[in-house]
């Protein structure tokens, strides 16, 4: 596996570990949004973005696959939280995971487009 390919694996393991800490989760709110939802959005945005980065030249189709896989990973994590003390499965957490995945893909796509725009025609 290319060295870049390990990046999303590491991020996924960190997200999984943080999600399975008993009684964990962000408390409080920032405006109308709970801190835990923001943590979901950020974590899954980073996971989706690093997944596309690992692919080097993703297409729209692979971006869609990344979205589905990252969101599905969020669903599996939600299922794994059920028996963890102080944790619970939450449909809203899964929605936040999907939003994060979409934002991570959009952010990566914008950065990649900016990168491509800055290349000279000889590159």
UniProtKB/TrEMBL annotation:
Keywords: Membrane, Transmembrane, Transmembrane helix. The keyword Transmembrane helix applies. The chain crosses the membrane at residues 37-55, 62-82, 88-111. The keyword Zinc does not apply. This is Putative integral membrane protein.
């Amino acid at each position: 596996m290319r060295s870049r390919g390990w990046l999303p694996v590491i991020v996924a393991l960190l997200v999984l570990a943080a999600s399975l800490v008993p009684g964990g989760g962000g408390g409080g709110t920032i405006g109308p949004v709970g801190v835990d939802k923001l943590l979901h959005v950020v974590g899954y945005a980073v996971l989706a973005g690093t997944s596309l980065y690992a692919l080097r030249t993703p297409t729209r189709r692979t971006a869609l696959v990344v979205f589905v896989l990252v969101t599905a990973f969020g669903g599996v994590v939600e299922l794994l939280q059920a028996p963890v003390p102080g944790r619970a499965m939450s449909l809203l957490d899964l929605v936040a995971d999907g939003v994060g995945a979409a934002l991570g893909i959009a952010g990566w796509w914008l950065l990649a487009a900016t990168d491509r725009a800055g290349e000279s025609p000889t590159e």
